[in-house]
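RECORD TYPE: protein structure
NAME: tRNA (pseudouridine(54)-N(1))-methyltransferase
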Amino acid sequence: MRRFVVIGHRATTDPAFSLNNLPGAGRMDELCRCVSASLCLSHGMREDTECWLILCGGEKAPLTIRFSGKTMRNLSPDERNIAGLIKKALALPCGVVFRESTPGVAVRKGGLERVIEEGGCAVLHEDGHDVRSVGDLPGTFLLSDHLDFTAGEAEALEALPAYSLGPCILHADQAITVLHNECDRRKSGWKI
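PREDICTED:
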């Protein structure tokens, strides 16, 4: 199982956000692109992948929304469709365990600390080791949205391995695509 966890520093936890202004909902547009990059293939779904969004904006923060390719239904790769699924998840009362809002989409209370506690994580960061120079990769990768990790997040992530995807800083959704390509090549036996 491959998992991408994206921290949305300003992403709203209010289900009343407008589908017509996703950037104004704490850059929900960027998080929706991360879900699409994580799960969508041309004419298919990555059933071996999950995308978790940690929403850190608003009164109910932090909340984590899980998108699971294995059980996903009715996901189109466009931002508006994905944002609609996020709205449905945010409308649910949630607790400490994931609660499903629609097939493949679930929400729970908690954020980065819980993800780190669950283990098996690495950080995607421009200052990390070149991903092509390491052997086995972990199953879970943590990324930040358009903002850098906060000082508190950076401290919490210090003990985790960090990997870089190359000399250029990429958008989170682009980083997911590049890492998928790297993992796909390794899995299929393509030469690196």
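COMMENT: Residues 1-192 form a domain with the Alpha/beta knot fold (CATH 3.40.1280.10).
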